[in-house]
Write a structure and sequence with these properties.
Blueprint (H helix, E strand, L loop, with lengths): L5 E6 L5 H10 L3 E4 H8 L5 H11 L12 H9 L2 H23 L8 E4 L7 H4 L4 E6 L2 H12 L3 H9 L4 H7 L2 E4 L4 H18 L2
Parallel strand pairs: 1-3, 1-4, 2-3, 4-5
Helix pairs in contact: 2-5, 3-5
Length: about 200
């Protein structure tokens, strides 16, 4: 099997990565989203992973039905660098293995796109990608989106942003930048332009 073009897609929390990925998917791009993989790995169907998390963090991060209390886990790891590292040691290798398994599948998509929120802190993904795209968005819109989606307040969002590579650095490190500060029509237009660029690379 010949290696297909692999694009990395990243951005700050609430920047619109999922929306951008969905627009690429509509154009025939294979999307591999590490956040989705992480959710699948920590669902009730993966008791093996949940048991590992229980061994590391105890019962307090679980709901009464045995499902993972994601907000509680987030609070635990954001208040302790040691526990954050422990969580990464449990999940990150498993997520990467799932990504590699998906990349190995034969498919009819034009090229692959891996959505990685912390792409520029993840050397193993940077070794895979041929081009990297940063989804940029004004902080005011980020606050609005995250509050609407997760109910987080500005201080909580800022705490997450502080753990991520700054927008300025990510813009500099990226090959391409998508600006998500307008409507879906504008966003779709930018995606179509980049898609044409990547299709030309694989002709």
């Amino acid at each position: 099997m010949s290696k297909k073009l692999i694009i990395g897609l990243t951005g700050l929390i609430g920047s619109g990565k999922t929306t951008v990925a969905n627009l690429f998917a509509e154009l025939g791009v294979s999307i591999i989203d590490t956040d989705i993989i992480a959710h699948e790995l920590t669902s009730l169907s993966r008791i093996d992973v949940l048991n590992e998390l229980k061994d590391c963090f105890g019962d307090s991060i679980f709901n009464l039905d045995g499902s993972l209390n994601r907000s509680e886990l987030r609070n635990v790891v954001f208040n302790s660098a040691e526990k954050k590292l422990l969580l990464e040691q449990v999940l990150h290798p498993k997520i990467f293995n799932e990504v590699m398994a998906k990349l190995s599948l034969e498919h009819n998509f034009n090229y692959n796109m891996i959505v990685v929120p912390l792409l520029f802190k993840s050397p193993r993904y940077l070794e895979l990608t041929d081009y990297n795209v940063f989804v940029d968005s004004p902080k005011e819109l980020i606050y609005q989106r995250v509050n609407k989606r997760s109910g987080l307040l500005i201080d909580e969002v800022n705490k997450i942003l502080e753990s991520q590579v700054s927008a300025d650095i990510q813009r500099d490190l990226s090959d391409d930048v998508i600006i998500n500060d307008s409507d879906i029509v504008n966003l779709s237009s930018q995606v179509q332009i980049l898609n044409k660029k990547y299709l030309n690379l694989i002709k």
